[in-house]
Design a protein that fits this description.
Elements (H helix, E strand, L loop, with lengths): L1 H16 L2 E3 L9 E5 L6 H8 L5 E5 H4 L2 H7 L3 E5 L6 H10 L4 E3 L16 H10 L2 E8 L22 E4 L13 H22 L6 H12 L4 E4 L5 E3 H17 L6 E4 L5 H12 L3 E4 L5 H12 L3 E4 L1 H6 L3 H6 L4 E4 H6 L3 H11 L3 H4 L8 E6 L9 E5 H14 L7 E4 L6 H14 L2 E4 L14 H10 L5 H4 L2 H8 L1
Parallel strand pairs: 1-7, 2-5, 2-6, 3-4, 3-5, 8-17, 10-11, 10-12, 11-14, 12-13, 16-17
Antiparallel strand pairs: 6-7, 8-9, 14-15
Helix pairs in contact: 1-2, 5-6, 6-7, 7-17, 8-10, 9-10, 9-15, 17-18
Length: 484
């Protein structure tokens, strides 16, 4: 009877959630400890239905008290324990030493942010004590169901796609330490690193534009995501539209694979161009507008940049006119002029084809393609260009996410310029692709202004000056003097 019910549930889950399984189980399955991240109340059911094993599930004592979950647990063998109790782990040790595969969630509870929660030391000490073979399994997509514990304002779907990724087995040897407490703590650190590496290793292989579209699908295309000094909040829909339109206009002035220089401040269109150029198979070369004529010329020569995109208003405010006029072998394209070149065909392409079907409108690129070119500061000579692929940038973001718990409740103030490696990845791409809101500020040198931009102080400042945007009255430099 149990087998029949499991077969029916497996078929239903396969149809409704389109469950995708990758990876292989090990040939040797004795003393097997299966560890997985905990995204929802469906996790145990998914592992029980789709893993071709007959394991014992280690569940929290609080779960067993729920009558509905007791009904589901009747389909599997389980052991109810308190993950914070060292004595409870002795029962798990006996199970593993008896040869039964055991499934355990090292986090001990369902994530409330969508990222990894704190991992407990108990499961890691069990693995080290028994010498068990650890089989990591990544569950992805279950957090977006209504069975998760994410905040109520986080967008969810009734039946999102769920994937189970089975990774190669590993071991956690018993650490060398003077006391049992230290050995337990070191084993716990090893388990935490293992879980972080599991999240990183199972990241999707995609391009920047593909990651942007996925983020919009997950968080909602109408979610307001980016804000800059213009005090305009841009949604995912706005950013995608900007990327499609600007990318198409620049593509008319360049060739596939060409490196196009970006000489722009921290504004939403700058991010839109980075995504749009990469989507149209161009590479954004992030030029440092503070490097002077020689530095910018050397960067253009090194990256073979023939076209630079900038803005007349920015050039005027930053007093870059003379420097740009001195550059040789480059053609300047101004955003103000680009917008004027958008014809009826471009508008129809954008509205009727590209916006409704962005994945079909543009050819799918390779994660190995060049996405951006960053430049060294030139402090030890001429600036050197570093070509970064889509895979490299997204891997950097995945590494940060595996360690730092970002969520849609976070707001990031990015004062580092987007031509800076950290300003681009951690300050620009990371919040956009994780759903954390970002405010783009043009300069890190305004040390008196930046603290004012925190929500509480900014609210107090607006109250003191009336309900007027301070940036409408002052330039950042004037505001710095006013705040001081």
């Amino acid at each position: 009877m149990r087998t029949l019910i499991k077969a029916i549930l497996r078929s239903l889950a396969s149809i409704l959630f389109r469950v995708r399984i990758s990876g292989l189980l090990p040939a040797e399955r004795s003393r097997l400890l299966i560890v997985a991240n905990h995204e929802s109340f469906l996790d145990g059911l998914l592992l029980g239905l789709f893993l071709p094993l007959d394991p014992v599930f280690v569940v929290h004592t609080g779960v067993v008290r729920n009558p509905a979950f007791r009904l589901l647990l009747a389909l599997v063998d389980y052991l109810a324990v308190d993950p914070t109790s060292p004595m409870a782990m002795k029962k798990v040790i006996r199970l593993i030493e008896g040869g039964r595969p055991v499934v355990i969630f090292p986090e001990g509870r369902i994530t409330t942010t969508g990222s990894l929660m704190k991992t407990y030391d108990g499961p890691a000490f069990v693995a080290a004590k028994t010498g068990a073979t650890i089989l990591p399994v990544r569950i992805d997509g279950a957090a977006r169901t209504y069975f998760s514990r994410l905040a109520a304002h986080v967008p969810r779907k009734l039946f999102p796609r769920i994937s189970l990724s089975i990774l190669p087995t590993t071991l956690i040897p018993m650490p060398d330490a003077a006391t049992a407490r230290l050995r337990r703590r070191k084993a716990g650190e090893a388990m935490r690193r293992l879980m972080q590496e599991m999240i990183f290793a199972t990241r999707p292989e995609q391009t920047l534009f593909g990651a942007l579209l996925d983020a919009a699908d997950i968080h909602g295309s109408n979610r307001r995501q980016i804000e800059d000094l213009k005090q305009i909040e841009y949604s995912y829909r706005d950013l995608i539209k900007m990327a499609l339109a600007l990318g198409r206009l620049v593509a008319k002035e360049s060739q596939p694979g060409e490196r196009v220089g970006l000489l722009l401040p921290n504004l939403a269109p700058t991010l839109g161009l980075i995504f749009g150029l990469s989507a149209h198979r161009r590479t954004a070369a992030m030029l440092n507008y503070t490097a002077g004529v020689d530095g910018m010329q050397a960067a253009c020569t090194a990256a073979q940049v023939r076209t630079i995109i900038t803005s007349r208003s920015f050039v005027e405010q930053a007093k870059l006119g003379d420097k740009l006029a001195a550059l040789q072998g480059v053609h300047l394209l101004y955003l103000e002029d680009l917008r004027a070149t958008m014809n009826l065909g471009d508008k129809l392409w954008l509205v009727l084809w590209a916006q409704p079907f962005p994945r079909a409108a543009l050819p799918a690129g390779s994660p190995e393609d060049a996405a951006v070119v960053m430049f060294t500061s030139g402090s030890e000579g001429k600036p050197k260009g570093v070509v970064l692929s889509h895979r490299a940038l997204l891997a950097n973001i995945a590494q940060i996410r595996a360690v730092v718990d970002f969520s849609t409740d976070d707001k990031i103030l990015n004062a580092l310029p987007l031509f800076h490696s950290f300003g681009l990845t951690a300050g620009g791409l990371l919040p956009v692709l994780t759903g954390a809101k970002v405010f783009l500020y043009p300069s890190p040198l305004h040390y008196r202004v930046i603290p004012v931009l925190t929500p509480k102080l900014f609210k107090l400042l607006k109250h003191a000056w009336g309900d007027v945007n301070p940036f409408c009255r002052f330039t950042p430099g004037q505001l710095s003097m006013a705040v001081s």
